[in-house]
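Exercise 3.2. Students should predict the tertiary structure of the chain below and write it as structure tokens, then compare their answer with the key that follows.

Predict this chain's 3D structure.
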Amino acid sequence: MGGLLLAQATARHTFEFGRIQTEADWLAPLAVFGAVLLYAVFMYRRDTVELGGLSSAVLVSLRIVALAGLLLIYLQPQWRNERDVVHNSRVAVLVDTSLSMDAEDTDATPGGATRAQKVAATLADSKLLRQLQSVHDVLVYRFDRDQERIATLDRRPAAATTGKTPAANSPAAPDWQKLLAPQGIETRVGQALRHVLNDERGSPLAGIVLITDGQQNAGIEAGTIADRAREAAIPIFPIGVGSDRQPANVRVRDLVVPARAYPGDPFTVSAYLQAQGLAGRTVTVELFSSDGKMAGKGAPPARREETQQVTLGGDGEVTPVRFELTPGEVGRRLLALRVVPPPEDRNRSDNAREAMVEIVDRKTHVLLFAGGPSREYQFLRNQLRRDKDVVVDVLLQTGVAGISQDAHAILDEFPETRQELYDYDVLVAFDPDWRKLSPAQVDLVERWVADQAAGMIVVAGPIYTDAWTQSAPLAKIRALYPVEFNRRFAMATDAQFGAREPWPLDFTRDGLEAPFLWLGDSAADSAADWSEFKGVYGYYAVRGPKPGATVYSRFSDPRAAAGGQPPVYMAGQFFGSGRVFYLGSGEMWRLRGADPVYFQTFYTKLVRYVSQGRLLRGSNRGTLMTERDQYVPGATVEVSATLTNAQLEPLEAAGVPLQVIQPDGNLQTVRLLAEPRRPGSFRGYFTVRKEGTYRLELPVPESKDLRLTALPIQVSIPNLERDRLDRNDALLSDIARRSQGQYYVGLDAAMGLKPGVLSLAERLPDRSRTLTLAAAPDPLWSDSAPWHRARWMLAAVCGVLCLEWLLRRLWRLA
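Answer key:
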């Protein structure tokens, strides 16, 4: 339950007797007191017959006072302390921040405010919030794939909220535009409602306000959670934003270009168009190409390769368009596909895509380095041997002289010179025994990855990994891995291999969005393909990912979780100008059980991904790379650069400027900062907000006109959020009905600006409640009480008895 805000507390102090809880509790002490009192009076009247009435009255009075004092002590007089605490009524406001909220509505002016911007402007105007705050504490959450409370606004009665100008000591208003910026690739309405119900369990929650377009596309059913809300007497008030019609739009859903091609060898460029509300319309599709250098604002690439007229299909239908190109000279070519949109198109930012193809006259050179002939090694060796774009050599540490291997070359020893190792683009290491490498060879591997932009795929295993990770001379090899290994005694092991049942891989958000891990053409297709994979049986347990590394998947067995996190199975990192990818076990061959093509697709894309740095080494002055080339709006792009000076030594500088040309042609400068432990390496980050193609260029210091470029970045809304952009009135009405709330179409209706409609604030009841909190009683004469409250009664009783005894002696009574 969320913490309760205390609006008001009133303290009360009441005098009482600790031993008296009911009226009947008086009977026994008063009966005893009366009996003792009568006995004392009787005795004194008999003893004082000769003294006279006055003396007898004095002595009897003293005895009565002493007995009354003892009675008072027995009754335990005390002060009871109580506080009445008022818990303010609360309202939870859930705001949809999925990427569909970044859409413009059909009836809006093109280029106008998006749904999210309109919601943020309404909250910033604060009229809706002022109405709610006049009675309730307001809790604001954002939700998409996940949910998070982003603001807590205290109740401010109407007298304090009549003006818009905040008081001098009032907290600054939240930046709603920033806090509510769309970034989620899914809309999970049901999960968000459940989270709030659980988070506010036991609090005086008057209702839940749900601001969304209602297009739930993942997670638990919202109607079921609405039933739970009704049972808890918490009504839900959905506010539907957006248009009830799908906006007309045509977009380039995908552009598929091979990573590399060869001079004179034709290749296919495949584009996929998707349209809404434009069925049967004919559009012009143009393919341009340039030498890969960045063009200025509004300038098209240099050469139009081909133009086609394409008839669009029905709503959501994908229309393929294919072009055949024959490359000429060696080098990098930037291909740009553009659709000339019809006037009705509501989003002009998704009408173009760019991709880079490298025209090379050499093949990718791969070295397979294995501690033993595992299945993973054998299947990959056979696959790469058949790939016409790859030259594969092998080094099997358990092999003997004259062994037969289906490879281009069989190595007896690990490369010892730069000429030998630098000829390779990728090293795939299957549980090797790194201890057999000399210190010079270890240094050579580190420099090859960091300085030559080489790629490594490292696979942990049950034979050698546990041994070499404890070897002090192999610190540089451990540094290459994107995971931190556990430190332990040499004979102990944390590896987990040979389980009785397979466990699927639990992909992180980065893993789901990484195209090089897609088994299909899109994230959705890939997720469906991976769901056919039963999983792996083992993993090598590591402490966790290194700082700056990216975790792509985890081993999903909940029994293996340590510290609340499942074990890392796939992870990657930049190391200098190179890339290193880690696999927790060599079990991807099991993908063949689902479909033999999956194994081939997995390793083909992975080898291309880690070798990308070698492809982009257009200059010996350095490299410029991003983690991937496809992102969603709101994502953070990590950029890595490795630079040398004019003498080809690592560049010494605090930072270097990176130029980012955004889809609208505007130029953004991002500063890449030097990495202290890696001379010549620089890293920086920037956030992509709009759909379209981003291009990166880095002017090389100490050069005249030399610039490094990276692959273009394509930013697009996932199909899950793109397919339905109309307002889902049916779902939102059902949520309101089942929870006994009210559905409002538009923010104006919720604020009571439409005739005949009660405002949201008028429908939300005040559920403030008062709780009485009792503190421990404060006795008048406890051991901890001060003298004047604790011992005066005992002193008085003793004094009265002493006075009585003294008078009896003076008056010569026995």
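Discussion points: Residues 246 and 726 are 5 Å apart (CA to CA). The radius of gyration is 39 Å.
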